[in-house]
UniProtKB/TrEMBL annotation:
Cross-referenced SUPFAM superfamilies: Dimeric alpha+beta barrel
Cofactors demanded by this protein: heme b
Metal-binding in keyword set: yes
Keywords tagged on the record: Iron, Metal-binding, Oxidoreductase, Peroxidase
Record InterPro entries: Dimeric_a/b-barrel (IPR011008), DyP_N (IPR049509), Dyp_perox_C (IPR048328), Dyp_peroxidase (IPR006314)
Protein name: Deferrochelatase/peroxidase EfeB
Organism the protein comes from: Neolewinella antarctica
Length: 490
């Protein structure tokens, strides 16, 4: 009997961009952000330029899979295979406007949030005024061309004109800044990443219709002892990733109704949300220390250091090594720390009140996993960044709909009785909305006690300071490889 719930699709891997169905795992990544210039023959010339870049550099899913096979074979054979760079291309709605004809564009305007841009969703996303249009960033850690200009047309050093070594970067007043396109270059080697970035920039700079805005560098952090990827808060990453292609297709793929492959087969792309989030380590330390102080009178642990780890896990929903609170056999104690089973499927059906994992723990607030219907799952492809005085996360998510998947997540993180303990941001410009003044107070209901005698006690987020600050972002569409390499439309 045919399963009607399955997403029936036969998608050749050469038609889909890489890093969508499976993360590429590269350590270094540069995002080159571009603004199109108004020139004679604009649409035609831009299409020709981008088509040439796509044909030469863009990575397909099939190429990524072949590279993975070659890499694993080399490891088995004791070789020294160099993984290929992974290149992605995406466009904002204003960028797509300058590439598609009006008939094709109408079929891309179904997602209202993409059409309006991230700036129009600032209140819902708790961004409160910060955006890359009015924020000056530090130079990237491994890129020589990461510059913003002030409205006076000077760079951060107070120099006018263009920075040396960055030919083609536009001097645009920040209030006029608009991103049309990005190219992402990822590599396992820092030097190769920079060289490939420069090579692609040089190729693009030959077109008068391309203006470079800035380059944002990212680096994948790894634990020194385990070599596992970890977040800026030192939590191991890569858990709960969706691997089933059928499930991924349902959550990711947007049918390109304005384009057909030469064989007559439909093609697909996906929407991408890019958000630069500065993470305030001092605020994280304050929250953990405050929670440890509240836990000490009532929680028994087997090791002195495990109380701090337990406090971090209550805020995140997992221990730093990835073990979910939800799979523990006992409500409290060092048993949570076991590494067994952290890759197994789990849900919160047996913990409806949050006696093991608080309802406001970050991973539970974002993905309730079986405790309620969840149609909001997104696929994360983020990477950390480190700059001179700041560090944080380049949050990147992929989804079929920004309207129906991405933006509703922010409603969930602000749920009044179990506000997301990590991702929630209050409005610093409105003291009536600042943690913990909001009514009812946003709080984390933490399990306290020993053995099976558990009670839930409210933990108010201390200090009223936000853990993250939004430093810029937008919504993008990643078209199919077939479309970018042909630019054929109905």
């Amino acid at each position: 009997m045919k399963n009607s719930k399955r997403f029936q699709i036969n998608l050749p891997g050469e038609l889909l961009q890489a890093n969508i169905f499976k993360p590429d795992g590269r350590k270094y990544r540069n995002y080159v952000f571009i603004r199109f210039k108004q020139i004679d023959g604009g649409k035609t010339q831009l299409r020709q330029t981008i088509k040439k870049i796509a044909q030469k550099y863009l990575t397909s899913q099939s190429q990524q899979e072949l590279d993975t096979i070659n890499y694993k074979k080399s490891i088995r054979d004791g070789g020294n295979y160099k993984s290929a760079s992974i290149i992605n291309i995406g466009f904002t709605y204003p960028g797509m406007e300058q590439l598609l004809n009006s008939a094709a564009l109408r079929n891309l305007t179904i997602d209202r949030s993409f059409r309006n841009g991230m700036r129009q969703s600032q209140a819902r996303l708790q961004d409160y005024g910060d955006s890359w249009q009015d924020h000056k960033t530090e130079r990237g850690s491994n890129v020589d061309c990461d510059w913003f200009y002030s409205e006076s047309g000077t760079n951060e050093a107070g120099e006018s004109g263009q920075p040396s070594g960055c030919p083609g970067d536009e001097k645009i007043d920040l209030h006029l800044r608009r991103v049309d396109m990005f190219i992402s270059i990822a590599s396992s080697d820092d030097e190769i990443c920079v060289k490939k970035t420069t090579e692609i920039r040089d190729a693009l700079s030959k077109s008068p219709g391309i203006g470079f805005l800035f380059t944002q560098a990212g680096v994948r952090l790894r634990n020194a002892a385990t070599n596992k990827a970890e977040s800026p808060l030192s939590f191991q990453e890569g858990f709960s990733d969706i691997s089933d292609k059928d499930s991924l297709a349902r959550r990711l793929l947007v049918k390109e109704r304005w384009h057909l492959y030469s064989s007559g087969a439909p093609t697909y792309g996906t929407y991408l949300a890019f958000r630069k989030l500065e993470i305030h380590q001092d605020e994280w330390k304050k929250r953990v220390e405050s929670l440890v102080g509240q836990l000490k009178p009532t929680v028994t642990t087997k090791k002195d250091e495990s109380l701090e780890s337990y406090a971090k896990a209550l805020l995140m929903g997992r221990f730093e090594n990835g073990t979910p609170l939800a799979i523990s056999k006992e409500p409290l104690g060092h048993e949570y720390w076991t590494s067994e089973g952290k890759d197994l499927p789990f849900n919160y059906r047996d913990d409806p009140a949050g006696a093991r994992c608080p309802l406001g723990a970050h991973v539970r607030a974002m993905n309730p996993q079986g405790s309620e219907k969840n149609d909001l799952e997104i696929v994360r492809r983020g990477i950390s960044y480190q700059e001179e005085n700041t560090a944080g996360l380049l949050f990147v998510s992929l989804q079929k709909s920004i309207d129906d998947q991405f933006e509703p997540l922010f409603d969930r993180m602000a749920a009044p009785f179990h506000v997301d303990a990590i991702a929630y941001r209050s409005n610093p410009n409105d003291p009536n909305l600042k943690i913990p003044a909001i009514s009812p107070e946003p709080q984390l209901q933490i399990p306290t006690g020993t053995g099976k005698e558990i009670s839930l006690k409210p933990f108010i987020l201390p200090g009223g300071e936000n853990l993250t600050t939004f430093r810029g972002g937008d919504y993008f569409y990643l078209p199919s490889v077939a479309f970018l390499c042909t630019f054929s439309v109905y």
